[in-house]
Design goal:
This protein is an alpha/beta fold. Helix content is about 25%, strand content about 15%. A 3-stranded parallel beta sheet has the order 3-4-5, covered by helices on one side.
Length: about 120
């Protein structure tokens, strides 16, 4: 799994082989919201405190989709987010399901389901 890989740089003679430089385009696609928010911040934020990025790269950055509509992250994205008006929690509550309280945070539930299957 990607989260188990240590950070690494492919290099030759001590220098990165393919650094992202000014003028490049970057398209990020990954479903996991936490990863998308982290990498988007690295490309879009004027200043970072999490790590030393150096100067903000002058790149055209876009996500495959908008990962956080409330924050507007990323600023550019390729696929319009779906309009979700009938969530599983709402449908369950309307049907009188007593377990509807289980449905929760959209950032966490895929991980909860994964752990339940183990």
């Amino acid at each position: 799994m990607d989260q188990d890989l240590p950070a690494f740089v492919i290099e030759r003679t001590g220098a990165p082989v393919g650094p992202i430089v000014d003028g490049d385009s970057v398209i990020f696609f990954n479903f996991r919201g936490d990863r998308s928010l982290e990498i988007t911040k690295a490309f879009e934020a004027d200043k970072l405190k999490e790590f030393d990025r150096g100067p903000k790269p002058d790149v055209l950055y876009a996500g495959m989709m908008q990962y956080d509509g409330d924050l507007g992250v990323p600023k550019r994205y390729l696929v319009t987010p779906p309009a979700i008006d009938r969530t599983m929690k709402r449908i369950s509550l309307e049907c009188g399901c007593k377990a509807a309280g289980y449905f929760g945070n959209a950032e966490i539930w895929p991980h909860d389901l994964f752990l339940q299957r183990q």
